[in-house]
Structure formats: structure tokens, C-alpha cells
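Archive entry: two folds, one per protein. Generate the first.
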Amino acid sequence: MKISATIVIYNENKEVLKKAIESFLSLNFKKELVIVDNSPSNYLEDFCKSFKDVKYIYSGKNLGFGKGHNLGFKSLSIISDYHLVINPDIWFEKKEIKAFLLWLDNQKDISLAIPKILNEDGTTQKVVRNIPTPISLIKRKLGLDLDEIEIQDKSITEIPFAHGSFLVFPSYVFKKLNGFDERFFMYMEDVDIFVRAKKYGKTIINTNYSVYHKWNRASSKNFKLLYHHIISAIKFFIKNK
């Protein structure tokens, strides 16, 4: 099996990023990781290039989440069987994701899959949601309805969508999708790609396997990020009206 991955970074903490890189590199498949750096400067270049099987691309500007991952995918030198979209604040145990990928390789009707996402303390992050509507998104932002879907542990469940901190695609599916819709600078691109991926198969969570995610809910704390979230939501609802 050949696997590829992309990580898009912006002024990342080296120790956090190191855990993400080393987690992927621990997988004993033929592999390649592309890191796309959207930071104002390329101060992380030497750090990223110090790892084997890592290609570093400095974009020179903030391309956004989806466009950064698309650039990374187009820059791969291998044709992989599976492509992983990984947040820089993700890490995992080698045996967990190796087993997850081997399981996925035996499934022929899945277009997008995720494992269980855990907090740093081992508790489960509730990342699975219904496809948002304008009303449900407003209710969520006001704290009236989180619209979270409870997923049974040790189960394999078809889901509407989940937050895009760790996504695994058969690479041919990601290519057919042309990756993320680059009209979304950040936010809603994960919802959009789940919706589009359903054309090629099931979108699944398998909670028999897990990764860790250092999640900070940035858009609820930062006005600029909240602005991007609102703009992306408007674009999504116009696209899917």
C-alpha cells in the first residue's frame, strides 16, 4: 500500500507539529508527506526538511486550508492508494492508524473515512454533525443547539459529515473531487467535501480506531476567524440552495 498526506501550517508550534509529522512517518508503508506553509515567513522550512519523506512548500501567502491541501496533493511525487488530510495538531499511535488503513483497504464502497477523534485527555470529541442549515448554524453559534450526533463506540457508522481534522480518502476519489473547493478560504470546506464525496461512496466513521486532536475552537474566540466562518457559510448555502 502507498499512502500520502498533506499538512497545511500557519505559524505552528514546533513541538505540536513534530508529533503530527512523526505520527505519519511512523507508518510502515511507502509514503510521502507534503507540508504547505502558509505562514508569513518560511522560518519552519529547515525544521520540516529535517524529516525524511517530507516535502516542504512555502506558499508565500496564506492560501487558506483547502487551497493549501490541494497544492500539496498536486505536488506529490508518488501515486498513492490513500490520501490523508491531517491537521498539524493531530497525532496518533502507529498501530491504530495502520490497522485503520488496512481495514479501509478491504472496503470498496467508502469514499471518505475517519477514525474516532480524541481529546488530549482521551475523551471523545463530538465531531460528527448533520449537514448545517442557516438556522442550525445560527442556533449552534448562539449555543442553543450543538447539533452533534452521538456515535456508538466500537462501531462503523455512515455519517453526514465530521470536522476535517483527519480525513482519509482513496486517492482516486480525492483526485476526482479536484480536492477541496477553493472558494472556501477556511471553514465549511469539510462539509462541502463530505457532501461531494457521497457521489463516490459512503462517508464513514470507524470508532474502533482513534487519533488525538488538540482542538481550540478558534472561530468562537477570534472575530476575524468568525468573519471567515460566516462568509464561508454564506458561500456554502448559496452553492447548495
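Generate the second and append.
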Amino acid sequence: MFTLDGVNSFAFSEVRQTKGPQRGEPKYTKWVIKRGKSLTLKGWHKTNEYVDQFKVTDFGESAAAKLGSASELGTITATFRASWYEGEDPPEGEQPGAGIGVGFGERTTQRVREDTAPREYGVLRAAITIRYVKP
């Protein structure tokens, strides 16, 4: 999961749940990155074809302000978990189980492929939080 000022990078996605109790909520909440691979995340997910670039801005123009949230301003957090396909054994080591903000920059392309495979997610293995300030 990747959050900026406590806001999930999928919060403003146009790709939404169409039925069930989460109807209208973002369809995605996590980025799946294969072992040994990397991802350069360019901005807020809008569709699987493009994102709106991250931009540090005054709080009033921030994503957090648009959602009425100010609890984690000035933070960027990435959390990491193992992932495996449903029905597979989990990897070894798994157990059950008014400042500034980041707003919206210019739209840019970022092509992604939807992972529709049913997955299970393990325990949190690591998290990185970066505190930033506007120069």
C-alpha cells in the first residue's frame, strides 16, 4: 500500500467497485510488484492508462484536504507484504493473520495491467514513512 498524507494512492481512481458493500469505492487498494521487480509510482491512480502526478502544494489544494483528512500530513508511507495466490501455501515466516499536503500535478501516462488473480496477503513485513516539508 502507498499513502501520501494518509491518503491511499488509489483514493481518486476512476476504476470503482460496481457492486456489493464496497460499491463506489476504489477497486484497488494495493500495488502488486513481483519479486525482484520495481515500480516507479508517478502519481495518483486514475485509470490503468494514466495517473495525476503527485505535487506538493498548500494544504487547501491537497488530496488530504479534498477528503477532509489532516491526521497524517507531511508523510509518505509505503508498506510491504508478501503475496501469494489463493489456495497456495503462504511463504515461510507468514502467520495468520494545516501544513502542506500532496495534491494533483499534471496528468501523465502510466500504463498498468490489472491483476485479477485471487490473492491472499500476509502480515506486514516493512513500512517506510518519509516526512517532508515544503521548501
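Annotation attached to the second fold: The chain is about 5% helix and 40% strand. The chain has one domain: 2-131.
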